[in-house]
């Protein structure tokens, strides 16, 4: 009889532990409103060690980086309430413009967590860089979205 009590006790504890795993962790679901840019040498197709930016400006937000910041990759934010964002770059390589289009939509991760905003269909409207490629058109925390190639 004592064996059955032990088995019942272990079963109840095990059931409680597994029941707790059904609770969604809504804090793990992250809305991403930024994209990552990496800068490459067009001739060698290798990432540039660093490029000095005098400024990066988004007209709605003003100057985004401190003057003379050095990067080989960096992130920039899009306006999730719009479908187009334009950036103006000043660097050692000259003046460049990057205008991006994108779509904002919502998906339901779970009934308990509610909707999560997704930014997808990232595309280039205009750019003045030597060359540019979209590597991933959905904004996620672990994706390099755009490669900029410079001579």
List the defining traits of the structure above.
151 residues; mainly beta; six-stranded antiparallel sheet; five-stranded mixed sheet; 11 strands; elongated
Residues in helices, as a percent range: 10-25%
Q: Which regions are unreliable across 5 or more consecutive residues at pLDDT < 50?
A: none
Q: Give the class from helix and strand content and strand pairing.
A: mainly beta
Strand content: over 45%
Secondary structure tally, helices = 1
Q: What gross morphology would you assign?
A: elongated
- What can be said about the biggest beta sheet? 6 strands, antiparallel
Describe the structure.
The chain is mainly beta. The chain is 13% helix and 50% strand. The protein contains one helix and eleven strands, in the order H-E-E-E-E-E-E-E-E-E-E-E. It has one helix at 2-20; strands at residues 34-41, 46-47, 51-58, 62-63, 69-71, 73-77, 84-91, 94-110, 114-127, 131-134, 146-150. The strands form two sheets. Strands 3, 4, 5, 7, 8 and 9 form a six-stranded antiparallel beta sheet that branches. Strands 1, 2, 6, 10 and 11 form a five-stranded mixed beta sheet that branches. The protein starts with a helix and ends with a strand. The mean pLDDT is 81.
């Amino acid at each position: 009889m004592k064996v059955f009590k032990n088995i019942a006790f272990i079963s109840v504890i095990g059931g409680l532990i597994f029941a707790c795993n059904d609770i969604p962790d809504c804090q793990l679901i992250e809305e991403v409103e930024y994209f990552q840019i990496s800068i490459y040498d067009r001739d060698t197709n290798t990432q540039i060690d660093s490029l000095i930016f005098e400024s990066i400006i988004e007209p709605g937000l003003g100057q985004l980086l401190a003057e003379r910041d050095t990067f080989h990759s960096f992130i920039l934010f899009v306006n999730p309430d719009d479908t187009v964002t334009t950036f103006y770059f000043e660097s050692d390589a000259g003046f460049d413009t990057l205008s991006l289009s994108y779509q904002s939509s919502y998906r339901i991760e779970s009934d308990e967590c509610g909707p999560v905003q997704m930014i997808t269909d990232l595309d280039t409207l205009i750019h003045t860089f030597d060359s540019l490629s979209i590597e991933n058109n959905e904004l996620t925390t672990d994706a390099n979205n755009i490669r900029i190639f410079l001579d």
